[in-house]
Amino acid sequence: MSLTEFLQYVIDGLGSGTLYVLVAIGFTLVFGVMGLMNVAHADFYMLAAFGLFFLGGVEGLGWGVLAATISVLIGSLIIGFAMFHLILKRLDKEIMIAFFVATLGVSFFLENLVAKLADFRVRSVPALFTTHTYVIEGLYITNSVAVSLAAALIITFGLLAFLNYTEHGQLLRAVAENAMLAKGVGIDTGRMTLLAVLIGSFIAVIGGLLYANTTSTADPFVANTVSLKMFAVAIVAGIGSVGGALVVGLFLGIAESLSLWVGVRGGFDGSQWQNVIGLVLMVVVLMTRPNGLFGKFERIG
Amino acid sequence: MPDDSAIAVRGLDVAYGAIRAVQGVDIDAPRGQITALIGSNGAGKSSTLNAIAGLVPIARGSVEIGGVDATRLPAHVRVVERGVVLIPEARAVFLTMTVRENLGLGIRVGREREARGHKSAFTLEDAFRLFPVLEERTDKRAQYLSGGELKMLAIARSLLMHPRVLLIDEPSMGLAPLLVRQIFAVLRGILREHDVSVLLVEQDTAVALELASSAYVIEQGRITMHAPASKLRGDARLKAAYLGADAAAGRPAPEDAKEPCP
Ligand SMILES: Nc1ncnc2c1ncn2[C@@H]1O[C@H](COP(=O)(O)OP(=O)(O)O)[C@@H](O)[C@H]1O
Ligand SMILES: [Mg+2]
């Protein structure tokens, strides 16, 4: 066994791990602030990819990658805004199952709408940038992994700084800890929820754009797998824990990649185990630490 | 005379599903006075205060603040525009935040109210002068404060919000008698200095009647008595009712109350 080979699998794992981080931090932020989960959150990955396909690609409107990317970023705010006003704020927070079913419905609707528009096919999307592979000490590192990792780190630490050192960040933390008291100290909790949804949507489409760029594809049902990782990362890290989502997301990506490596070494198909790892992790953590590894329920940051 | 009314509640109903916590309650809290709302555990006192603050839905009836209807206003608007500030009985402080951050939330509302023309002389220095321990602990997370310190922090934050009406829910709960007396002395001083009206909920009937100019008694969600405090102080029926209720609930008499926090 060579160290280089092992490290190569770690690097590949970091690439997918960063994409789990970017979907999980918005989900966990909104979950923390609202106390409820938006199941449709992972669909921003699908929307970002098809935004690139329909707006940027030659099979679509052909605006080019830059214009499509900017449109997707702006579009995420519009869709987040609409989702909040049409669905999220109208639901009775006391009835958790209503929230679950309603956001699941939004997810089905969006996925099937886009699938119909795309003729129920996986499409190929234009690349955000030309991929380069650097060879350093025998390790293959692509610029897309480097960009994804940089994005995940900058966004996570930026969000943590926002939550901890700005007034709006403090107001978000107040609502997450105790929404009733937050109202009592004059905070417009609805506005803060909208803010969390907008931040989460924006971060998610950044992840979605990078995901589409890495895989070069737009799959209408990509959220099926992405949402599984999103739940696993957010729950294992602890709901509301943004920093925890970074650590756990990267760990999950690396663990999945290493399962391939173990497969190669052991002579079996490790890819069959990949999707199980997150679930097993989730079950084990839920049994031993119900609030997650980094979570103290009712706080974000 | 709207100018003389701080809070006017009319025919208030509060319900939690099938539980009818408050039924047809009328309360008038005159401006510049302390009005007490007393009653045993589960009588509907907190529900009434929360409904006035806009924190639980009003099923029926109306709430006027300073003579102007506020029944449909969201809670944060009642705070910022009408100056109605609730000091809850429990979970009154953000435990994951520092003392400074908690006070900052009060200052933020105070600033917004000042921008709307509601002046008040109460400053952070005043808060620290009243409760020096808060200044010592300013960078500590609230979760490390004692029960008494949490109470002081909640009161200081509320005063920084430039309130016109304070809704105070069981300020003596869980505190040692000495601390209770200290906190009430502070409150009395503040109310004399600033133009603040108070609706005070207390299970400790003796304490409440000592402070208030008039009192309402609530039983099983309905007002059963309303009289000047001086009259109620000697009321044998009231005493019997509350000694009975306390004994039945297995609660210690207020004199034996211990400080439960570390
Ligand atoms: N959030 C709630 N959900 C359901 N029932 C509640 C809730 N809050 C209070 N109640 C019920 O309403 C009644 C009045 O409660 P409350 O207003 O807290 O009384 P008090 O403050 O006088 O002790 C009680 O029967 C209590 O159990
Ligand atoms: Mg109560």
Would you kindly provide a written description of the structure presented here, covering whatever features stand out?
The complex is a heterodimer of chains A (301) and B (262). With 301 residues, chain A is mainly alpha-helical. Chain A has a single domain (3-288), classed as ABC transporter involved in vitamin B12 uptake, BtuC. Chain A is 71% helix and 4% strand. Chain A contains 11 helices and 4 strands, in the order ααααβββααααβααα. In chain A, the strands form 2 sheets. In chain A, strands 1-4 form a two-stranded antiparallel ribbon. In chain A, strand 2 (133-136) and strand 3 form a beta hairpin. In chain A, helix 1 (3-34) packs across helix 9 and helix 1 (3-34) runs antiparallel to helix 10. Chain A is globular and about 60 Å long. Chain B is α/β, with parallel strands linked by helices. Chain B has one domain (2-249): Rossmann fold. In chain B, 39% of the residues lie in helices and 25% in strands. Chain B has helices at 45-53, 75-82, 99-115, 124-130, 132-136, 147-160, 177-193, 205-211, 229-233, 236-249, and strands at 5-16, 19-30, 34-38, 60-65, 68-69, 84-87, 165-169, 197-202, 214-219, 222-228. In chain B, strand 7 (165-169), helix 7 (177-193) and strand 8 (197-202) form a beta-alpha-beta unit. In chain B, helix 3 (99-115) runs parallel beside helix 6. Chain B starts with a strand and ends in a 13-residue tail after the last helix. Residues 243-262 of chain B have low confidence and may be disordered. Chains A and B meet through helix 6 and helix 7 of A and helix 2 and helix 3 of B. The complex binds adenosine-5'-diphosphate (ADP) and magnesium ion. Chain A: GO terms for molecular function: transmembrane transporter activity. Chain A: It is found in: Cell membrane. Chain A: It comes from Candidatus Segetimicrobium genomatis. Chain A: The chain crosses the membrane at residues 20-37, 44-64, 70-88, 95-118, 138-163, 192-211, 231-255, 276-294. Chain A: Belongs to the binding-protein-dependent transport system permease family. LivHM subfamily.
